[in-house]
UniProtKB/TrEMBL annotation, chain A:
GO MF term set: RNA binding
Pfam family, one: LSM12_LSM
Protein name: LSM12 homolog b
Domain called AD: residue spans: 81-175
Protein family (similarity comment): Belongs to the LSM12 family.
Compositional bias annotation for Polar residues: 177-196
Family annotation (PROSITE patterns): AD, SM
Sequence ranges assigned to domain Sm in this UniProt record: 3-73
Region described as Disordered: 173-196
TrEMBL record, chain B:
PROSITE patterns, per the entry: SM
Protein name, entry field: Ataxin 2
Sequence ranges assigned to domain Sm in this UniProt record: 57-134
Coiled-coil regions listed in the entry: none
GO terms of biological process kind: stress granule assembly
Pfam name, any one: PAM2
Annotated Pro residues bias: 646-664, 916-928
Alphabetized GO MF terms: mRNA binding
Region ranges (Disordered): 150-188, 276-667, 843-937
Start-end of Basic and acidic residues biased regions: 158-167, 495-509, 530-547, 612-630
GO cellular component terms, A-Z: cytoplasmic stress granule
Bias (Low complexity): 433-448, 861-877, 889-899
Polar residues bias (residue ranges): 176-188, 461-470, 595-606
Length: 196, 1047
């Protein structure tokens, strides 16, 4: 075990790399470290590649090996900004509700594609709900399995055409995401295999 | 918390102790509930931030990801996915809507797979992966605007890691007109309303119905010289003073009137050209004055009012009244307002107001006349006197009102006469009025303030004249002393006026009988005084003095030595004029009051000197006093304390008879017309005050330490004494009688008398009492408060109490010291007082109380006589120590009562009163006892605690009542212990309920209960009285009190 000794601390801002007991290689910038609980927080580039987002990893150093500091902190970290707790709480609540609603749909036997589509539409149009396995958007458009563009039915108009565009784009994105995930997965596997 | 508590409750239900259950519940909450974490924090909250919570970075980052979905890997490799909810101090993590992630990708969890929330121990967590986190999501952006502050702008590095130098924006040359820049350069203060109306009318044909008088919304204030109006105006001035004197008000005004714009205050950009001309911009009234160089308070007050009279701030002061000596005025004000700068400033403003008001009408004339008189004697002094007079009047106006009230309370008749004569032309003191009228006429024209101002002016003039004279000799003292004196005098006057109205009406006949002789003496005294005060304020002073009554006379007397000395001198003179014991007492009382008032006002060396002189005089008198007459003289000393409150003392001095009736109205009345007067007179002044004061003092002292117990014993003693004295005493005779009465018998009488009185006269009496006490106190620092009290406004009291207390306290302290200083003996007494104070404390203890009681009874007997009339105190002083004690107690009681009534202000007053009482207690036997009253200062210290408590009034009331009850109970009735217990029980509620409403409420019930049990006892009645007074002061319904009484 290469766990840091009692006197060793991670300075905020330095880059650290480690390997978990589960074989996962982690690397990121130290955001916080709590000696008492051996919890280390790292900030990494977003797994989705979005520039303004980042992944945060909370690691228990008790289950980590091969901890190495890639480079030390170069400059003092910026002061901590005050947080809007209310905003965070509401986000937590919303996320939870979304997940529960999604779970509801899943338990209803909806296909993954349908669920994903529902989530996508839901991001744009809040007024959508499940009716059996059909997605009802704005009480106007009904999307029935297998949830393809041609499955969108309703009164001809801007609403229907708009929904179709969303559905069309959704599947495009899904395809591109799948390909990305595959490539990433392959890369990670390679990396892990190489590193290990 | 709620959950935890609930859990805790449940668990306790089992076997665990409450604590164990609670802890267990807390722990349980942590483990079981997601939210439990929050609650879990509570237990650890006491330890501040423990565990992770102490790690700022960790807390920040973990909090930033709250609400994000995350994948949490556990030791065994299982991955849970959920919404990160929160975390515990041990870095336990809570996921909401978590489910065990299946190896199959992108297969959402089923509803049944989702767990509401899961708490993961940090030791079980290997990795938590938050994906796609926006760490800036919850960053607080205070507001959109913040993006445009200099700080926000400069913080936008935009890739540059160096501090951005902000440059002032320059619109360029093209901003000739209609541009933004033109706004800055536009010197006009926006549209004139008339321009707007005109523009709208021309452009849109809209015709405004705007009426600058706002007749549709309000009614123009009709100014008249009626007492009512004057009173109201005075009170308004007082309230304004209070408000404007408050630190919060000043702070707000400072904010409002900060000339710097927001830009100037917060900009990071320095603009050279920022000195925009604001001349034509709107300037808040306060600021306007400010520009004049006035202090805020003064400026504000001055500006508005001054504006009326004259534009410039300085001009207003001087201009309105043509007092070129504005500076002098200010100085005086400062001197006068030594205790509190702000108050002074306020006072000054008030004075200005008064002046302005007066200046608008009669006031100007008054001032002029006064000034003229002052000038006649000594031009320079005259100026100072006038200006000072105005200021002092103003100042005093603030103070005066209080003092006046006090005066009115105690010696309301005289003062009222003077005051009333000018304003309302009080019937009783015609002779008095005449002199006063002379002065008053000028002042009369003004509003109520004018009346006060008149008084103040008179006093001022007196002071001025004395001061002028003195100034010739002692310029410094004269200025300060004068101002103080003036201030003091006026207050007494005002209260007197108020009280006078009622008292005078009632007692006018009686007063006249007495007053007829008194007035003459007064005049004589005045004359004599005038001579004494070489070239003092000749006519005006004489008149003023006559009008001002004892205070003035005292001043005059004191004048020889100093201002204070003049007062002392006047006393001698007064005695001579009032050969009769009554007169002597009155004069003495007056002197005493004056002295005290002066001393208080002056607080400076002059005061002390005066006090000393007075004391010396008193002592001299006292020596002789043993006799009834001398006693009366002694009483004057005692009265000084009480008299001051009464203010009437002054009045009495002017019109000896009147003063007595007024100042001692209750006593005199009682004696003369036991049935009628006894009720009225006795109540207000002596009984309530005396009983209250002792109780108050005790209560106060006790309160601080062990409120309830102590107060009771004292109460009993003091109460019994005061009551007796109050009821029985006729001016001179009463005193001796009282002395003799010291026995329990007196106790009974007072109580009995008080009882009836309490019920009927409540309003008037209460006011009288208050006024008396205030005056007394007023003489001390209380003076300021006094006005409020005088104004009566119960409301006023509360405000005053709150606001003034602080202010007042210092003065009181000063006064006591002064007193002590004045007479070394007194100092001793003060020591004794302290001793007594301890004793009082002991009293609270059952055994102690018993012992004390015996002692007290004697004092009480004498005191009662003294108590009867604030002035009487002086008379009583002459009497042997017992009397003195009694007097002191009575005075203290009265003071206490007043304090109770008044509330905080009263408390301060109480201090003074208390101080006296304690001395009296210990010194009891000594002739100096009158002086003992001075010790009050020391006692004041004790009192302080009580004062500190605003809720005291209620508490005091309760205490007092209880005390009374106890006192009554202990001596005569049952064993003290049981009573104390009763009191204790009752009091505790009151104590806990400092808040006025609650406290009052509780006290009432308590009192009522106590009353019920004790009602039969005179003390109970007294208590009731006190309560009534207090309630009145507080604005409580008399009906309630009545009900209590009835019970």
């Amino acid at each position: 075990m290469a766990a840091p000794g009692p006197g060793e601390y991670f300075s905020v801002g330095s880059s650290v790399s480690c390997l978990t007991c589960l074989g996962q290689r982690l690397q990121g910038e130290v955001v916080a470290f709590d000696y008492q609980t051996k919890m280390l927080t790292l900030k990494c580039a977003s797994s989705s590649g979005k520039p303004n987002l980042s992944d945060v990893i909370l690691v228990n150093l008790a289950y980590v090996s091969e901890v190495e500091i890639i480079n030390d902190r170069t400059e003092t970290p910026p002061p901590l900004a005050s947080l809007n707790v209310g905003k965070l709480a509401s986000r937590a609540r919303t996320e939870k509700e979304d997940k529960l609603s999604q779970a509801y749909a899943i338990s209803a036997g909806v296909s993954v594609e349908g669920q994903q589509l529902f989530q996508t539409i839901h991001k744009t149009i809040k007024d959508c709900k499940w009716q059996e396995k059909n997605i009802i958007v704005m009480d106007d458009v009904v999307i029935s399995p297998p949830y393809q563009v041609e499955n969108c039915k309703g009164k001809e108009g801007s609403a229907l055409s708009h929904i179709r565009k969303i559905v069309e784009k959704h599947f495009k994105d899904v395809e591109s995401q799948k390909s990305m995930q595959r490539s990433q997965a392959q890369q990670t596997q390679k990396d892990s295999s190489l590193s290990s | 918390m709620s959950m935890k508590q609930a859990g805790g409750n449940r668990k306790p239900g089992g076997i665990n102790s409450g604590a164990a259950a609670a802890s267990g519940a807390a722990g349980f909450g942590r483990q079981s509930l997601g939210r439990g974490r929050n609650s879990a924090k509570v237990p650890s909250a006491a330890v501040a931030f423990s565990g992770v919570y102490a790690n700022m970075q960790m807390v920040h980052v973990l909090t930033s990801v709250v609400g994000n979905k995350c994948e949490l890997k556990v030791k065994n490799g299982v991955i849970y996915e959920g919404v990160f909810k929160t975390y515990g101090p041990e870095c336990d993590l809570v996921l909401d809507a978590a489910h065990r992630k299946s190896p199959e990708p992108s297969v959402g969890p089923r509803r049944e797979d989702i767990i509401e929330s899961i708490i993961f121990k940090s030791s079980d967590v290997v990795v938590v992966h938050f994906k796609d986190v926006d760490l800036n999501y919850a960053k607080k952006v205070s507001s959109e605007q913040d993006n445009f502050t200099d700080n926000a702008v400069s913080s936008r590095l935009n890739g540059e890691h160096k501090e951005k130098d902000l440059e002032p924006w320059d619109g360029g040359e093209q901003h000739a007109s209609g541009s933004l820049e033109s706004l800055d350069n536009d010197l006009s203060n926006g549209w004139d309303p008339d321009d707007m109306f005109k523009y709208n009318e021309e452009t849109y044909g809209v015709k405004s119905t705007y009426d600058s008088s706002l007749s549709s919304y309000t009614v123009p204030l009709e100014r008249d010289n009626s007492e009512e109006f004057l009173k109201r105006e005075a009170r308004a001035a007082q309230l304004a003073e209070e408000i404007e004197g408050s630190a919060s008000y000043k702070a707000r005004v400072a904010l409002e009137n900060d000339e710097r714009s927001e830009e100037e205050k917060y900009t990071a950009v320095v603009r050279d050209s920022h000195t925009l001309n604001r001349e034509n911009k709107y300037i808040p009234p306060g600021q306007r004055n400010r520009e004049a160089g006035m202090s805020w308070g003064a400026g504000r007050q001055n500006s508005p009012r001054l504006v009326q009279c004259s534009p410039g701030p300085p001009a207003p002061r001087a201009g309105p009244h043509d007092y070129g000596t504005i500076p002098g005025v200010d100085q005086r004000v400062v001197n006068g307002g030594p205790p509190r700068m702000s108050p002074k400033s306020q006072r000054t403003p008030r004075t200005h107001r008064v002046a302005s008001c007066r200046g608008g009408g009669p006031s100007g004339a008054d001032f002029m006349s006064q000034g003229a008189s002052g000038e006649v004697t000594a031009p320079p002094p005259a100026r100072s006197s006038p200006s000072g007079g105005t200021w002092s009047s103003v100042v005093s106006g603030a103070h005066r009102p209080r003092s006046p009230r006090q005066n009115s309370m105690g010696g309301a008749p005289p003062v009222p006469s003077s005051l009333s004569s000018p304003q309302a032309g009080t019937v009783p003191v015609d002779s008095m009025t005449t002199p006063t009228s002379a002065t008053s006429p000028t002042s009369a024209s003004p509003s109520p303030n004018l009346a006060e101002a008149k008084e103040s002016r008179i006093q001022e003039t007196r002071q001025n004249s004395p001061s002028a004279n003195k100034e010739n000799v002692k310029p410094m003292e004269s200025s300060s002393g004068i101002s103080r004196l003036a201030s003091k005098g006026p207050p007494s006057m005002t209260p007197d006026h108020r009280k006078q109205l009622d008292n005078l009406k009632k007692f006018s006949v009686d007063f006249r009988l007495q007053s007829s002789s008194n007035p003459d003496p007064v005049f004589e005294t005045m004359v004599s005084k005038a001579p004494r005060d070489p070239g003092e304020k000749p006519k005006e002073q004489a008149t003023d003095k006559s009008t001002t009554d004892a205070t003035e006379s005292s001043i005059c007397d004191e004048v020889p030595v100093t201002l204070v000395a003049t007062a002392a001198g006047s006393k001698p003179s007064t005695p001579s004029p009032s050969p009769s014991s009554a007169f002597g007492t009155v004069s003495e009382q007056k002197r005493g009051p004056d002295v005290t008032s002066q001393g208080v006002q002056t607080s400076s060396p002059a005061v002390t000197s005066t006090l000393k002189l007075d004391k010396d005089d008193k002592e001299d008198k006292k020596d002789p006093v043993p006799e009834s007459v001398r006693k009366s003289t002694l009483n004057p000393n005692a009265k000084e304390f009480n008299p001051r409150p009464f203010c009437s003392p002054p009045k009495p001095a002017t019109t000896p008879t009147l003063p007595r009736p007024q100042g001692q109205p209750s006593p005199s009345i009682v004696v003369q017309q036991p049935a009628v007067y006894g009720q009225h007179v006795c109540f207000p002044q002596m009984y309530p005050l005396t009983p209250v004061s002792p109780g108050v003092q005790k209560s106060i002292i006790w309160k601080s330490p062990a409120m309830y117990h102590v107060p009771v014993p004292h109460m009993t003693l003091s109460q019994s004494k005061p009551y007796r004295t109050g009821k029985v005493p006729n001016m001179p005779q009463q005193r001796p009688d009282q002395h003799h009465q010291p026995g329990t018998s007196t106790m009974m009488h007072p109580n009995t008398a008080a009882g009836p009185h309490i019920v009927a006269p409540n309003p008037a009496y209460s006011t009288q009492y208050f006024t008396c006490s205030p005056q007394q106190f007023a003489s001390q620092p209380l003076v300021q408060q006094m006005p409020h009290y005088q104004s009566q406004a119960q409301h006023v009291f509360s405000p005053v109490m709150q606001g003034s207390p602080r202010m007042i306290t210092p003065p009181t302290h000063g006064q006591p010291s002064l007193v002590s200083s004045s007479t070394t003996q007194y100092g001793e007494q003060t020591h004794t007082m302290y001793v007594s104070a301890p004793i009082h404390q002991q009293y609270p203890h059952p055994s102690a109380t018993l012992h004390h009681h015996p002692q007290h009874p004697q004092p009480s007997a004498t005191p009662t006589g003294q108590a009867q009339q604030g002035t009487q105190h002086g008379g009583s002083h002459p009497a042997p120590s017992p009397v003195q004690h009694s007097q002191h107690q009575a005075a203290a009681a009265a003071a206490a009562a007043q304090a109770l009534h008044l509330g905080n202000p009263s408390q301060q007053q109480m201090y003074s009163a208390l101080a006296p009482t304690p001395p009296s207690m210990t010194p009891g036997p000594n002739p100096q006892s009158p002086q003992a009253s001075f010790p009050s200062a020391q006692q004041a210290v004790y009192i302080h605690p009580s004062q500190v408590q605003h809720g005291y009034n209620p508490n005091h009331m309760a205490h007092v009542q209880q005390a009374h009850m106890q006192s009554g109970m202990v001596p005569t009735h049952h064993g003290t212990p049981s009573h104390p217990v009763m009191l204790m029980a009752a009091q505790p509620p009151a104590g806990p309920q400092p808040p006025m409403p609650q406290g009052t409420l509780n006290p009432i019930p308590v009192s009522s209960t106590t009353h019920f049990s004790y009602m039969a006892h005179p003390q109970c009645k007294l208590l009731v009285f006190l309560l009534l007074n207090i309630y009145e002061s507080k604005g409580f319904n008399f009906e309630q009190l009545m009900i209590c009484c009835a019970r």
